Amino acid sequence: LEDLASSFAGVSESYAIQAGREIRIIVKPEEMDDLGAIQLSRDIARKIEEGMEYPGQIKVTVIRETRAVDYAK
User: Fold this and answer.
1) Domain CATH code at residue 20
2) Is this prediction's pTM over 0.90?
3) What is the pLDDT of residue 65?
């Protein structure tokens, strides 16, 4: 699952959790907007459906995060 998710453009990290029942994908926010993250989750879900055998369902979560840090002196 992790290798499949990492093959998509804009993905920085991917983690299969809960014994493969869920995959979390962290994308680079400077390379992908919010709509791109939604589309990526659909694309990865379709790729899993087409290429893998699994019981039940697999939850695909795409995380796009922006952090702002400043310091008061």
Assistant:
1) 3.30.300.30
2) no
3) 92
